[in-house]
Amino acid sequence: MIKVNFHTHTERCKHAVGSEESYIQHAIAGGFKVLGFADHTPWPFKDYVSNIRMTVDALDNYITTLTHLKQKYQSDIDIYIGLEVEYFPEYLEYLEILKTKVDYFILGNHFYQNENIKGSYYGRNTHLDEMMDRYLETTIAAINTGLYSYVAHPDLFMRGRKVFDAKAEIISRKIIEACIAKNMPLEYNLEGKKYNQINNVEEYPHHRFWEIVSEYPAEVIIGVDAHQPESLSKTVLYDEAYQFLSRLNIKLIDRIKLFSKEK
Ligand SMILES: [Zn+2]
Ligand SMILES: [Zn+2]
Predict the structure, then answer these.
(1) Domain ranges of the chain
(2) Nearest ligand to the C-alpha of residue 187?
């Protein structure tokens, strides 16, 4: 298995730092053979400007910049251009347009319906059972669209849930089973792992979720979710994740489905 990462952000999203080129250079230093960018998708919101993602206008430059760098570094690393995409049903038509511009989408299901609705963040409000149900329902609906190449941080709900209780187990099993039914890989997220270590908590990734994954024939990919270039050159977390998942006999993959390859 070669070392890959399909979850890289850039400073365009306003909460990550570093240029595209610096992420590429750090990834090469970190031994990655494949680097996919999946910055937070822009959305054509009306009367609202998101402070956690690029604007719709910035997208073309994101793509042309990466297309240029892909050529420049082609002998060192394979670059892919993707997006981390929410499941917002009212914008599904917009996704059909975006799909023609990039190589892949990963599902980053952070918000219920829209990010500017109070209480919509699954990373905070999943202490409520109702929000757990919404997370499950929207994750499954997103998987069933066939638009996404994998589910990023599927155990994101643990940031709000805090305790891996019976409800968490039921939701986990249903998400894992839905992924298997659609051949959809699950991502073990290193940005979450870093957050857990810094804050001395266990939210996501949560070991119980991954132990449950190991009971199934699921495919798993490690995602750095880099918001800083250094996350790609310092590989301790990656190595720990690789060892943890290997110990659980989880099937790790190093490639994902791309739009262009379907054509
Ligand atoms: Zn982010
Ligand atoms: Zn995310």
Answers:
(1) 4-262
(2) 2
Q: Calculate how far, in angstroms, residue 188's C-alpha sits from the geometric centre of ligand 1.
A: 15
Strand partners, 111: 121
Residue range 4-262 in CATH 3.40.50.720: no
pLDDT (mean) for 243-255: 98
| Residue 20 and residue 69 in contact, taking contact as beta carbons nearer than 8 Å | yes
Question: What angle do helix axes 129-145 and 166-181 make, rounded to 10 degrees?
Answer: 10
Say what the pTM is.
0.96
pLDDT in tens, 231-243: 999 989 999 999 9
pLDDT in tens, 146-188: 999 999 999 999 999 999 999 999 999 999 999 999 999 999 9
Q: Radius of gyration over alpha carbons of the chain, in Å?
A: 17
Residue 2, C-beta contacts closer than 8 angstroms, at least 6 positions apart: 33, 34, 254
Spatial neighbors of 61 by CB under 8 A, at least 6 apart, are none
Ligand nearest to the CA of 14: 1
Please report, as a single letter, which amino acid is at residue 224.
Answer: V
Indicate left, alpha or beta for 47 from its phi (over 0: left) and psi (-120 to 50: alpha). left
Contacts of 67 (CB under 8 A, 6+ apart): 81
Proximal ligand: closest to the CA of 16: 1
C-alpha 137 – ligand 2 centre gap (Å): 18
Give the pLDDT confidence of 87-119 residue by residue, as tens digits: 999 999 999 999 999 999 999 999 998 888 889
Rounded to whole angstroms, the Cα distance separating 148 from 184 reads: 8
Alpha helices in the chain (DSSP H): 20-29, 59-72, 92-99, 122-125, 129-145, 158-161, 166-181, 190-199, 207-213, 230-233, 236-247, 259-262
